[in-house]
């Protein structure tokens, strides 16, 4: 699957594409419906389908001090878009230039430079300087440029409309099952395994430490997790996500301990999926008490992951 950037020259084979247009962070059920509409439309007309996203997120551009909130990296989104059936991922590199582009200029970019024959987006999509464009503007401006527009309404489950903010709220409450139900797969943090202070190894529970980067901070505590290793294997484990109150100095890390695994993962990329929240972080009176609790946490994680 190809990754394109909005300033790139679009390969001839991808011109005339149908573009699913949005941010698609997390690629939840609502996002998937927009992508499905674009892919089905493209197939019906014998055209390629492209799923677009923005990076960095516009919120990060306008509010650089906003707390981390990302649900997926670009690499993760590319995999999800490919699994959905898209031919390519288009990244709008969001900076001053794009932020100052008028609504008409953005439509010119879509229809002209990118050569889109059609776009599909959610009904609340806005674009252009000062968010001056909406779906009606997109449709009207696109029509004069021979680019069709379709909109997809909100997608709801049995409770309420599916949204990225709802998923973030669930994760910050430790509600992994709700997040997993609304996402294409469990929320997962992907990163390079870094060297730590070897505390886990000293306690008999060696961990693979990952920095959290721009990912949303779920509720801090102990989780039952699975992980995809560089060789493609999936392993189960228990992980501490948080600041490690037992040790100084505090540092935000995801520290998974993988059951029945013995290997060196330093410098390699792993993806750790959160399945169940077990308990909040805590500081214990002694290391013996901590180890006893870790043993209990691992037993509970094994049971939950069965």
Mean pLDDT: 94
Question: Which structural category fits the helices and strands?
Answer: alpha/beta
Multimeric status of the protein: single chain
- General shape: elongated
- By DSSP (H or I, 4+ residues per run), the number of helices equals 10
Strand content: 15-25%
Adjacency order of strands in the biggest sheet: 1-4-3-2-5-6
Give the biggest beta sheet: 6 strands, parallel
Measured on Cα atoms, how large is the radius of gyration? Answer: 22 Å
Distance between the termini: 34 Å
Segments where pLDDT lies below 50 for 5+ residues?
none
Give me the strand/helix succession.
EEHEHHEHHEHEHHEHEEEEH
The total beta strand count reads 11
Helix content: 25-40%
Can you describe this structure in just a few lines?
By secondary structure, the protein is α/β, with parallel strands linked by helices. The protein is built from 10 helices and 11 strands. Strands 1-4-3-2-5-6 form a 6-stranded parallel beta sheet, sandwiched between helices. The protein has a 5-stranded antiparallel beta sheet with strand order 7-11-8-9-10.
Structure description:
- The chain is α/β, with parallel strands linked by helices.
- It has helices spanning 29-45, 58-62, 74-84, 96-99, 103-113, 135-143, 164-172, 176-182, 199-202, 287-305, and strands at 2-5, 18-21, 49-55, 88-93, 118-122, 148-152, 188-192, 221-228, 234-242, 253-258, 269-280.
- The strands form 2 sheets. Strands 1-4-3-2-5-6 form a 6-stranded parallel beta sheet, sandwiched between helices.
- α5 packs across α6 (135-143) and α7 packs antiparallel against α8.
């Amino acid at each position: 699957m190809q990754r394109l950037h909005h300033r790139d020259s679009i390969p001839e084979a991808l011109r005339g594409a149908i573009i699913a247009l949005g941010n698609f962070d997390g690629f939840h059920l609502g996002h998937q419906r927009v992508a499905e509409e674009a892919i089905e439309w493209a197939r019906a007309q014998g055209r390629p389908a492209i799923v677009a996203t923005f990076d960095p997120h516009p919120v990060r551009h306008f509010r650089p001090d906003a707390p981390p909130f990302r649900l997926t990296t670009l690499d993760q989104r590319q995999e999800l878009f490919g699994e959905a059936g898209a031919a390519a991922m288009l990244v709008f590199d969001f900076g001053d230039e794009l932020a100052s582009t008028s609504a008409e200029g953005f439509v010119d970019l879509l229809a002209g430079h990118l050569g889109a024959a059609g776009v599909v987006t959610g009904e609340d999509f806005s674009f252009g300087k000062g968010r001056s464009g909406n779906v009606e503007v997109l449709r009207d401006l696109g029509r004069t440029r021979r680019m069709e527009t379709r909109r997809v309404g909100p997608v709801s489950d049995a409770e309420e409309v599916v949204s990225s903010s709802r998923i973030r709220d669930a994760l910050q409450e430790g509600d992994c099952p709700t997040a997993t139900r609304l996402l294409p797969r469990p929320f997962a943090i992907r990163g390079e395994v870094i060297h730590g202070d070897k505390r886990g190894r000293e306690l008999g529970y060696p961990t693979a430490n990952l920095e959290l980067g721009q990912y949303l901070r779920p509720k801090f505590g102990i989780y039952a997790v699975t992980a995809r290793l560089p060789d493609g294997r999936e392993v189960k484990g228990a992980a501490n996500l948080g600041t490690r109150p037992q040790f100084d100095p505090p540092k935000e890390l995801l520290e998974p301990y993988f059951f029945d695994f013995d290997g060196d993962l330093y410098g390699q990329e792993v993806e750790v999926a959160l399945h169940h929240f077990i308990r909040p972080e805590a500081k214990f009176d002694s290391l013996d008490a901590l180890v006893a609790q870790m043993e209990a946490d691992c037993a509970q994680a094994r049971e939950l992951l069965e």
